[in-house]
Amino acid sequence: MFENLSERLSGVFDKLTKQGALSDDDVKTALREVRVALLEADVSLPVARDFIKAVQEKATGQAVTKSITPGQQVVKIVHDELQHVLTGDADPGALKIDNPPAPILMVGLQGSGKTTTTAKLAKRLKEREGKRVLMASLDTNRPAAMEQLAILGGQIGVDTLPIVPGEDPVQIARRAKTQAGLGGYDVYMLDTAGRLHIDQELIAQAAAVRDVANPRETLLVVDGLTGQDAVNVAQEFDDKIGVTGVVLTRMDGDGRGGAALSMRAITGKPIRFVGLGEKMDAIETFEPERIAGRILG
Ligand code: GDP
């Protein structure tokens, strides 16, 4: 998911580590190249700027340039700073699902991968934590989306709330809550309607559902391929509805990965999971240590 960035950085670092002695100017030149690589990966400008500034402060001066392996020192500082930028919760994959039935609200734009992610997470909760999960589609505008969730539920062996034509999203959310309580479910997941753009109606609907369900987690699903747009969408959803975390999908594609690096720094919200394909197992928790490692090759 970070192939291009990773390649660019390893080029810069190879030069640095081969060089032996380093001057502050050498470090500055290298960091300028790192900055360009970050921007090309679609990391937002303020985030890239702060990143370079932090590294520069730590990597110039006697301690580094006069050390025995200055190049490696600089690489380590970049690594630590990457991890710092990415750091979210200690355990991003741990969903708050105590007090059953725990509601999880899934929000996001149409096509972001929301329904797929809902099913992937339900499968994960079922298989890894032995939870009984109920999924409900609230997308009353698109019967096909409701059907899609039911089909995925059938595939992964997770129950879905029966579809009752004519109900509005708030009514469905209420019915899901009642059903989850009566049926002894640990978790119920509400897959809200998506739209192509954030508009008043989308926000009003998600907010109304939120108020009825009082979710333990509100997860925003965004398409990782959309780069900085993903970060803007996250910011707006968080301002208007409040989210507890982000799921970045399509990180299996050849996107530039910058959204992942800017997300936490700009929105203050952690990336909790990344989607890595269409299959129901193609989801992973977002672990800063591992991601930083992957970027640095
Ligand atoms: P929704 O409109 O937000 O509910 O989006 P869907 O869940 O219907 O997903 C739209 C398309 O994206 C489907 O074809 C999914 O299989 C695909 N998709 C979802 N997540 C991922 C992912 O992480 N990687 C890839 N490659 N495709 C994904």
Shape: elongated
**So how many helices?**
12
**H/E series:** HHHHHEHEHEHEHEHEHEEH
Stretches where pLDDT is under 50 for at least 5 consecutive residues are none
Largest sheet: 8 strands, mixed
> Helix content range of the residues, please?
40-55%
Structural class: alpha/beta
Please give the order of strands in the largest beta sheet: 3-2-4-1-5-6-7-8
* C-alpha-based Rg, rounded: 22 Å
Approximate strand percentage: 5-15%
How many beta-strand elements? 8
Report the end-to-end length measured between terminal Cα atoms. 12 Å
Overall pLDDT, averaged?
A: 91
| Each distinct ligand | guanosine-5'-diphosphate
Protein name: Signal recognition particle protein
GO molecular function, one term: GTPase activity
Subunit structure: Part of the signal recognition particle protein translocation system, which is composed of SRP and FtsY. SRP is a ribonucleoprotein composed of Ffh and a 4.5S RNA molecule.
EC number: 3.6.5.4
Could you characterize the architecture of this molecule?
The chain is of the alpha/beta class and 297 residues long. It contains 12 helices and 8 strands. The chain has helices spanning 3-18, 24-40, 45-59, 62-65, 70-86, 114-129, 143-156, 169-182, 200-213, 228-240, 258-267, 288-295; strands spanning 102-108, 133-137, 159-160, 187-191, 217-223, 245-249, 271-275, 283-285. Guanosine-5'-diphosphate (GDP) binds next to α6. Part of the signal recognition particle protein translocation system, which is composed of SRP and FtsY. SRP is a ribonucleoprotein composed of Ffh and a 4.5S RNA molecule. GO terms for molecular function: 7S RNA binding; GTP binding; GTPase activity.
